[in-house]
């Protein structure tokens, strides 16, 4: 196993511990940890990194928060008031940095090893997308990972 793959294995294990979810298919998690342009061309010609998984993660994050708002009997305005800031890139990045995900993301070499807020937000979404796919579209598995990241529907938030 190459050093690159060993590092990626270590990073994947750290994410599993952080979000409390054990992947059946670690390849999807590893994809979630790859910022666009982070993988050397000698390993793959694919340069989009985790963007596809981030799109799925963004959608499932919104879906779960809206469902939780509906279950909490919040009106549409309250749901929007909670969901919009929660799914914002600054919030997602803050949540990712708070739990230390930056040490598990493979950043683009042009960023000199630093994980930007945009890369972090995409990685959080991609990790949630990876959980969704790996769990056979199980929203409860994603909801649990979201809770570990501080992205749960706020308790008691209904119609104020």
UniProtKB/TrEMBL annotation:
Molecular function, one GO term: ribonuclease III activity
CDD domains reported for this sequence: RIBOc
One Pfam family, short name: Ribonucleas_3_3
SUPFAM superfamilies: RNase III domain-like (SSF69065)
Domain RNase III: 12-136
Gene Ontology BP terms: RNA processing
Protein name listed in UniProt: RNAse III, putative
């Amino acid at each position: 196993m190459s050093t690159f793959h060993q590092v990626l294995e270590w990073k994947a294990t750290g994410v599993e511990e952080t979000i409390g979810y054990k992947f059946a298919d670690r390849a999807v998690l590893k994809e979630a940890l790859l910022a666009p342009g982070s993988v050397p061309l000698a390993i793959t010609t694919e340069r989009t990194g985790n963007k596809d998984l981030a799109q799925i993660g963004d959608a499932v994050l919104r879906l779960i928060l809206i469902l939780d708002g509906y279950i909490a009997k919040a009106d549409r305005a309250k749901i929007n008031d909670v969901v919009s800031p929660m799914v914002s890139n600054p919030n997602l990045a803050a949540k990712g940095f708070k739990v230390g995900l930056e040490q598990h993301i493979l950043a683009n070499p042009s960023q000199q090893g630093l994980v930007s807020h945009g890369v972090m937000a995409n990685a959080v979404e991609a990790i949630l997308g990876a959980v969704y796919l790996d769990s056979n579209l199980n929203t409860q598995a994603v909801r649990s990972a979201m809770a570990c990241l501080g992205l749960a529907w706020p308790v008691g938030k209904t119609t104020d």
